[in-house]
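Final report, closing paragraph on structural work. Over the funding period we assembled a curated collection of sequence-structure pairs, and we close with a single example.
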Amino acid sequence: MNDREEETTMRTLHIRKIRFLKSSLSALFAILLLGGCAVGPDFKRPSPDVPQQWMGAQAGPGQENGSASAALASWWLTFNDPALNSLIERGIKSNLDLKIAGQRIRQSRAALSGASSGLWPGLDANARYQRSGTHLPSDSDGLSGADSGSGSRNLYRSGFDSSWELDIFGGVRRGIEAAEAEVQASVESGRDVLVSLVSEIGIEYIQLRGLQEQLRITRENLQLQERSAEITKKRFDAGFASALDVANAVAQVAGTRAQIPSQEASIRQAIYRLGLLLGENPAALVGELSPEKPLPSLPARIIPDLPSNLLERRPDIRMAEERFHAATAKIGVAKADLFPRFFLTGSASLQANALESWSSSITRLWAVGPSVSWNIFNGGLTRSRIEANRALAEQSLLEYRKTILTALQEVESALLAFDKEAQRQASLQEAVESNRRAVDLAERLYVSGQNDFLSVLVSQRSLYASQAELARSMDRNATNLISLYKALGGGWETGQKAE
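Its predicted structure, as stored:
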């Protein structure tokens, strides 16, 4: 072959190579245009049916002029208690459940990053050494000497392999969509932990102050009963009272005194629980919270937002929605397995028979081209996965609806409990005042000899019981208010450490 023929041949090969590249790029462009579609259903946000207003938000007796709006973002500030504010701020920073929720968010974001990697080509480096040989028959087998003998050779090879899956039917993109929804679900889960945390701190703090109030009432009544017992003993010594009166007075004092140790133990246990919520040792808050303080004052009435706003405020509702979104996207992930998978593959390598000839006698190899893989039959496995993901999506939708109904029930119950307990508290306050007047009157009549000691005993027991019940009612009403704030989804905006 002369130089002109060689030049013509090289030109022809060059033209063919250019045509091949053009056709490949055209095919790739067409494939990428088709890649805009994705199999499987598109997510549509549900439109649940919620009531127009709250039944429990109607004004009750004696509450028409005591309305107050719910400052949900930082509801604990409405209690005007610096100690409560400090506990909640520290709990947001150091609670271990909140830190665990943060790590779950981190884990879901890493999973999203892994799912997104499917959109990019992969590149692998490789190196290989191989020694191979042949053994031919000897002359005794009837072969000539030229055909007999044995040989061996070395092979050194290194290079790169690349593969890029073209997401034609959207299986990878549906997987990314599901992973994004799961990230958001984990964020909402962290917010839900935050809502629960601040409400638990508030409830434990209220219960602590309520227990301290009950202890104060017990000690106050103990002093009153001890004074009555001393009067009874003096009257017995003077011959104006019976031994039965003395025994009843002493027994009442002993019974009231016996309640103090258990109340002190309950107070200390409440402090321990608060320490756990703050991520500290149980006894870390004993010195800070042991001094007695009264229960914080409460607004007479709460006006919550519209029920429809609950869908945006409650983190657990938004979390259920995102899980439904993820389950819907996974249907597309499974459905994409019904269709073929297209790849662009390429490889480049260097090959030599000896290391010393790596720089001189080296063979360069390369290959590039598309490939397709299609699982035509797998015993119905793909369709069973599609059906399983459809069932999971339906289950997630039902869970979403159930979460909404549960939220509506919690708000209505908390509104009702708060309003009715406020009415009950007003009656108990009146009972305490009446019982206090009855005790004073019974003692005066007993000292003047116009009544027996039994009336004193009964009136003192009634006063103690009504005071203790009033303290429990105040505790319960504050707890009902916190439960209402929690049911409304309050507290996650401030200190979103879970994110």
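Strands lie at 67-69, 122-136, 149-166, 301-303, 341-352, 363-373. The two ends are 73 Å apart (CA to CA). We thank the funder for supporting this effort.
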